[in-house]
Amino acid sequence: MSKPVLAIAGGIGGAKLVLGLSRVLEQGDLVVVGNTGDDFNHLGFAISPDLDTLLYTLSGLADPVRGWGRRRETWKFMAALEALGGPTWFRLGDADLAMHAERTRRLAAGESLSAVTEALRQKLGVATRLLPMSDDPVRTRLRTSTEWLDFQDYFVRLRCEPEVREIAYAGAGAARAMPQVLDLLRGDELRAVVICPSNPFLSIEPILAIPEMRAAIAACRAPVVAVSPIIAGQAVKGPTAKMMRELGVEASAAAVARRYADLLDAFVVDEADAGAILPEGVARIIGRTLMLTLGDRKRLARIVLAAADSCSAGARAAERKP
Ligand code: GDP
Fold this sequence. Notes:
Blueprint: E1 5-9, H1 12-24, E2 30-34, E3 40-42, E4 45-47, H2 49-59, H3 76-83, H4 94-108, H5 113-123, E5 129-132, E6 139-143, E7 148-150, H6 151-157, E8 166-170, H7 179-186, E9 192-195, H8 200-208, H9 211-219, E10 224-227, E11 230-231, E12 234-235, H10 240-246, H11 253-259, E13 266-270, E14 283-287, H12 294-313, H13 315-320
Parallel strand pairs: 1-2, 1-9, 2-5, 9-10, 10-13, 13-14
Antiparallel strand pairs: 3-4, 6-7, 6-8, 11-12
């Protein structure tokens, strides 16, 4: 093993870069912190959508077209539930259901979410270490003009249609970060922290809302590199750009960089955003950031690692992080 890389990731966009990183780094060198602000209980099951997207992607089980859930999934449970008049707005495939049932069983038996995630990772043969951002519950909630919504009500049931006025990460202030992650961030071994191209509001900021996480990333000696989830003012998938506009933030790569400015050494923007003006002290790295193929994912991973290595070699990093 060489020096470890810590990736901060949500679901679909995050998992794409995480897969690229896992393929260009030596086995075991990648540690991923996954967002659990989307977690919820549904039909009695403990569901962790972003952790599952990461596990399915890294194990090769992910559905490449839908972007969530498992490939070659069947839907007998859903059809039977519908026939009984049960709620069907949140789709649960038959094989996916096994994941939720097993997680629920282990949690009910007293295991922590990190222990359950570790067990599932090993069973799925995933070499990359994956940790939830916390073992304590943090729940992303969104305020519309009329009410506060739970995350999945907003994201899946209402298909991100309501205009968002405010976002809260309930429980984040009191949540503890994972000790293994804090040890990595505080040690000398880490090669880089990579903030993946995930939705800032729904995937990255719930993680950064845990005070210990944000403080440890801000103080760590390793270079911190983020990749823009916004290309030419648009999200590749999902409501990121729409939410930015609704929250009064310009939908641009530069605006994402500004949100993470105090943490960043370098920010990777797409070739389409080559003119983006970034906050002072943040190196602008230009590359092709649209990940359609596995080759795209690996190429972007190499760009990110090269950016980190050049930051740590540079005097500026030493100046900012003595
Ligand atoms: P979720 O938790 O499943 O919604 O997924 P994430 O938050 O991890 O990812 C959603 C974000 O990923 C959106 O803002 C997308 O624009 C971004 N994204 C998805 N695919 C790509 C890609 O190929 N390149 C880049 N740069 N961003 C992407």
